[in-house]
């Protein structure tokens, strides 16, 4: 099943969850969407979240721009995000302990 969406892209939808999607086992969706566009999101901060499957939440997210130069495979992965937040926490810890 497909649906026409702005920016010249079509959204691919399926009734069954793709195998590579990592979501809570309790999640029950009517349709699953195949990624086809990339957007850049700005947020005030990234916080740990016990509610979200990825383990993180964006505080006050807002759309910065559509990234026509990127493919869905090029986006920041959860592994990369964990590495960035870990490095950020380590740096903040060093700064606080220097005082």
Quick recap:
This protein is an alpha+beta fold and 99 residues long. It contains one helix and seven strands. The protein starts with a strand and ends with a helix.
Plain-language structure description:
This protein is an alpha+beta fold and 99 residues long. It has a single domain, classed as OB fold (Dihydrolipoamide Acetyltransferase, E2P) (Beta Barrel). It is built from 1 helix and 7 strands. β1 (2-5) and β2 (9-14) form a beta hairpin. The longest helix is centred in the last third of the chain and has 21 residues, at 78-98.
Based on secondary structure, the structural category is alpha+beta
Tell me the radius of gyration.
17 Å
Provide the residue-averaged pLDDT.
80
* Head-to-tail CA distance between termini: 59 Å
Largest sheet: 3 strands, antiparallel
User: How many helices does DSSP assign?
Assistant: 1
Global morphology = globular
CATH-scheme architecture: Beta Barrel
| CATH secondary-structure class | Mainly Beta
Count the domains.
1
Which fold name fills CATH's third level, the topology? OB fold (Dihydrolipoamide Acetyltransferase, E2P)
- Fraction of residues in H or I helices: 10-25%
